[in-house]
Amino acid sequence: MTKEAEDEIDQRYMVPGLSRGLALLQLFTRERQAQSLAELAAGLALSRSAAYRLVYTLEKERFLARDPATRRYRLTSKVLTLGFDYLHAQGIIEQAQPFLRALSDKTRAASYVIILDGWESVYLARIAPPAVGLVSNLQVGMRLPAHVTASGRILLAHLSEDELREVYRRLQRECKAVPPPASFAELKAQAEADRRRGYVYSASLFGPGSFSMACAVRDSSGRAVAAVNVLGPQALFDQLGGETVLRGQVGEAIGALSERLGFTG
Fold it and tell me: Residue 111 sits in which domain range?
């Protein structure tokens, strides 16, 4: 952790064991669904005995389960329950479902609701088209760097300068997969251009040959609380009429959903 990051955390109120336990749960990924005690210890840079205490606690609390045959650990459905409880708490998901369905039916593309969490875009809801070959591999719960996704960019565009600067600091410290812009001025210029345009239409870095169109959803206070995004093959979007037609279709859905949430602008 950098000195700057340490300055932002009051260590008096941190619970080291809880932090390590949460870090251990995050070691389990789609690619590494089952891990041994040695692998978990290495992932946390802890001794086997220290890692075992964490694993033992999480197993007894039913967040982890051990396979007696392989002696490897997996996450249990209790972790998934926490995620679903969070999703169900987000009122916008229920409100957005009919608009996502209509948008997906109209465009024959996958439609999403996304929120901003720090420097990441978090995919909360998804409606996929029935056509084979047009289904996006972006799933509910995925987190992607906001500065390189259409939905993340349009949400960054609605932050204040101070909020955007804090996001940039965190990108510099924490985003390892995709480098942030070379300077804050570059990120700010992109955000201002996206805000003036009112939407982001761009090639997807996470779906080769795919394009995304995203607009911000506003609530009764006028605040951008989420983004709605459609993602599909470039050939499909070109057939529909490209950026000009899509911005109208997504904009119409966004306007209706924002109105449902009390926005009157």
Answer: 90-260
